[in-house]
């Protein structure tokens, strides 16, 4: 038997296994139960417009504010990581290792309950919105810092040296020459980080949100419990996909464009 024929037989077997698995699932599934409990149109209709005006809106607010804080914090940590001042480097390295090593859930619990206990009477601006943004910012800053640091190191050293030879200070050369070029490199991975942050915003429910502050996961879970039906959870998942799929596609396009630019 030739190699080509063996390859065709193996490929045919793989397709056969896939088709058999699909047929088995279709045959064993309780389609009436799936329709009633997962794809109930009457239940889905009752979610609108609140799932958009409350759930999706709050999810976007938590994500955008957390991403903004994480981006600023990540840039500062990346600069500290590359600093010639040893305490700055130690602090940045410790922060990155700690916050990348801890589950995001623990950070949310700490921000929601630990800070008020450690600093009695202290309240973050914005209440729950501020707490969620702070938790997301603390987590994302650690990941963005390493991404931005890699982007800064990818800029040829000659760029900064040329700026210094023109009389620019080190800070001005970094601000006007190095950092803008670095961000062109790190935009695709930062877009991926935004997708991850959008999903991590679901952890805001552990802070203790009110009915008007619920994000998509909390909104879907509450309605599913009230109605004894999982359709709200499925609709909430679709709302997530409406944001994450276009963002993921954008990140892939940016990566492909960046690769073409390097050739």
Automatic annotation (TrEMBL):
Originating organism: Actinomadura harenae
UniProt GO cellular component terms: ATP-binding cassette (ABC) transporter complex
TM regions (residue ranges): 9-29, 60-80, 101-122, 233-251
Family: Belongs to the binding-protein-dependent transport system permease family. HisMQ subfamily.
Gene3D superfamilies reported in the protein's UniProt record: MetI-like (1.10.3720.10)
Pfam families, alphabetized: BPD_transp_1
Topology of the protein relative to the lipid bilayer: Multi-pass membrane protein
Domain of life: Bacteria
Keyword Disulfide bond recorded: no
GO biological process: amino acid transport
Domain ABC transmembrane type-1: start-end pairs: 56-251
PROSITE patterns, per the entry: ABC_TM1
Subcellular location: Cell membrane
Protein name as it appears in the record: Amino acid ABC transporter permease
Keywords: Amino-acid transport, Cell membrane, Membrane, Transmembrane, Transmembrane helix, Transport
Lyase keyword on record: no
GO molecular function: transmembrane transporter activity
């Amino acid at each position: 038997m030739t190699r080509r024929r063996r390859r065709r037989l193996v490929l045919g077997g793989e397709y056969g296994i896939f088709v058999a698995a699909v047929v088995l699932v279709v045959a064993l599934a309780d389609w009436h139960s799936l329709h009633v409990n997962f794809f109930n149109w009457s239940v889905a209709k009752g979610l609108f417009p609140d799932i958009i005006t409350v759930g999706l809106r709050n999810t976007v607010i938590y994500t955008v504010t957390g991403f903004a804080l994480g981006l600023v914090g990540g840039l500062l940590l990346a600069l500290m990581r590359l600093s010639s001042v040893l305490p700055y480097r130690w602090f940045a390295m410790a922060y990155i290792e700690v916050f990348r090593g801890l589950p995001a859930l623990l950070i949310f619990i700490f921000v929601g309950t630990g800070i008020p206990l450690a600093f009695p009477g202290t309240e973050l601006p914005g209440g729950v919105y501020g707490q969620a943004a702070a938790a997301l910012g603390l987590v994302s800053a650690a990941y963005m810092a390493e991404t931005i640091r890699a982007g800064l190191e990818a800029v040829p050293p000659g760029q900064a040296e040329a700026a210094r030879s023109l009389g620019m200070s080190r800070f001005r050369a970094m601000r006007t020459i190095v950092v803008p070029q670095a961000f062109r490199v790190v935009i695709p991975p930062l877009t991926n980080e935004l997708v991850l942050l959008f999903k991590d915003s679901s952890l805001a429910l552990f802070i203790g949100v009110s009915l008007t502050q619920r994000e998509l996961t909390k909104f879907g879970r509450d309605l599913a419990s009230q109605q004894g039906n999982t359709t709200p959870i499925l609709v909430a998942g679709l709302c997530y996909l409406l944001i994450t799929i276009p963002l993921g596609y954008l990140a892939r396009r940016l990566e492909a464009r960046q690769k073409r630019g390097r050739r």
